[in-house]
Every structure is written in structure tokens, then in C-alpha cells.
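Quick one: C-alpha cells for this chain, please?
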Amino acid sequence: MALNLAGWTIRASVAFTLGNKAEGRKCRLNMDSRYTQLADVLCGFSTRLKKGEKVLIDVAETPEDFVIALIRSVRKHGAVPMVNIQQARVSREMTRAGNAAQFKLFAEHELARMKKMHAYIAVRGANNIFESSDVPADRARLLGETVRPLMDWRVNKTKWVVLRWPTSSMAQQAKLSTEAFEDFYFRVCTLDYARMIPGMEALKQAMMATDEVQITGPGTDLKFNIKGMNAIPCGGEYNIPDGEVFTAPIRDSVNGVLQYNCPTIYQGVSFENIRLVFKKGKIVEATANNTKRLNEILDTDVGGRYIGEFAIGFNPHILNPMQDILFDEKIAGSFHFTPGKCYETTDNGNKSSIHWDMVCIQRPEYGGGEIRFDGKVIRKDGIFVPKALQKLNPEYLLGKKR
């Protein structure tokens, strides 16, 4: 299954010019062909729409031209489009002073709509990634708990794909110029995901044959078991960009300490230097630059202090964190270890209204590290060692090595 958007470039005159709101509001009759190409990928490659299926297009701060391109592509596949348009400032206000009755009504309404959908396509732009930073923790927690059935239904019962939309805010997060970020963004989106298939399948099989995993690195010495757990390759069907294989640890098997080295934004708050200590699966100690808010989030519910996902990332174009999890969790040479709910496909029994993908990079420039499966080194300093897994190394995925 190849994702080929070769030839995509960005010009200042097109509607998705980063940060150009005026352009983003225009809906020209002559639709830019790249909008059509990307929409067709999302409707065809990613969600595999069929005639008669109902599709919810959920967009935030995304140009109208692209929303229209998605609507047209959905119809071209014979499916039925529905559209939900969000704005970050409005969402912030609805949450900031919301109450249980409001959240309950919202969740019931949205769940009723979601239950009628066969597919879900989300395109999420953000002009200010910190827009919800001053939403009280108790409001965010209450909303998360209330909408959990909606999120579970969407993830487990629909075909779905989630995509970021490039904005000036994203370029700033990546600490790149607008032009450099544009080039980076579309290199990531045009990666030939078909080259990942052999390596992903080999990593899946290796995970499913493993009992104990050990991860070591600066400040990290962690052990857990994955025996009997399913493993899921991700190569462009659920997220773009993509490039990971994930599973889940046996819930109570996690012991040791993990020092993350990627900054992360969750519920509109920035965190750095997160350190978690585990005992019998539970996070018994959690510190960071904002230890108080970190623990407030982990205390959202019982499952917030247990792990719902373990994943290994290998997208060769994504090398450094930019505090956008759809990118950061795919960083080459990284893994993420996720407090909160598990996916139905890798169900370890952990239920929670949070799912926080915290990332650690193990390439030499980030301090290095090893991942061992049953005592055997499978990745050292970000490079896969066993021959079958070497097709997930950057040289192969970038076409520099056969």
C-alpha cells in the first residue's frame, strides 16, 4: 500500500500558505490539484471509503478549500459527507467554564452522531498550540471523562484517519523558517510508505514472539512484559505522517524508571524532562518542569497511572521533536510509552479518559539507548540490529540501500 503524493510543493499563492487566514477563507472554483490529491489519499488509501458509507469530516482551523476537496472526494467514492467545523478559541471558552450538564449534553449529541458514521476524517490545524493552556485542570478532566465513550466508539468502531494541517504555529514549534518547514512537512507526507511494509511486519512478529522488553538509556532502566499481546503496524492508514509499530504492556508488569527527553504539550500545557517511576505497572512517582500539573493529569482516573501503549517509531524524515504528537511519536530512533487508555486492538485492560504519548529518542545525539527483546538487542542508539528489522532503518526507507 503505497502513499505517493510526489511533486507536492507550496507556493505563496495557494490557500494553505502557512498562517494566511485570508487565503484560507477563499473557495476558488479552480481547486488546487494538490488539495484533490491529498483528499483522495485520505478517502481512498487511509479510510477506504465505500459506496453508501457515512463520513464525518471534523476540521479545526483548516482552509475551506481543503474541506471542499474532502467533501468532493467523499462523494466521488460514493459515500455521504458530514462536516463539523471547530475553532480553538470557541472550544476553549466552551470548556473553560463548562459544567457537567453541558458536557453530558455535548457527549450524548456527538456520540449519537458518531454511531451513525462508518468513517472519521480529522484535519487539525492550530494557530496557537497553547490556546487551552489556561483551561482549569478540573474542567479538562471532567470533559475528558464525559466524552470517553465517544472517543472509544470513534477509535474502535469507525475507519479513521487524523492529519495535521500546516500553520505558522507548527513552523514555530519546529523552530524552522516557514519555507524550511514547508519542505519538511511535505517530505514527510510524500514518503513511500510501501517500503515500510516488510520491516513493519518483521517488527510485529518480533513483538508478538517476545515476553520481556527491557529499555535502557540515560536515566532509564525499564522492564515490562508483552507476551500474548497483539502488535499493530502503522504505515499511513490511521495517521499521516506515520511510521510506528505499537503494542501494549501487560498492565501490571511495568517496573523501573523512564526518563523522557522530548518536550510534550498536553491539554495546552508544555512539559519537559518528564520522569516516571513504575512499580507493578503503576506510576508511583512523576516529576517534570511542571510536576503539579503532570500529576493532576495522571490522576484524572485510575487508568491514568498505568500504561496503555508501547510503540517504536521510525519515520526517517522526522528527526527532532516539535511538540506535535502526530509527528513526534514517529521520530526515527524513538519509542513512546503512553499513560492512559489502550486501544481495542491491543487491549491490556487499562481504561482511562487520557492517552498521553510521551516520547523518548535513543539516537546518539540524544544520549543513545537500547531496546532488548528477551535479552536480545533489537535496536541500539536508534538503529535496528537484527537483519529482518534493518529495513526500518533510515538508509533503507529513504531508498539509499536495498
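The radius of gyration is 21 Å.
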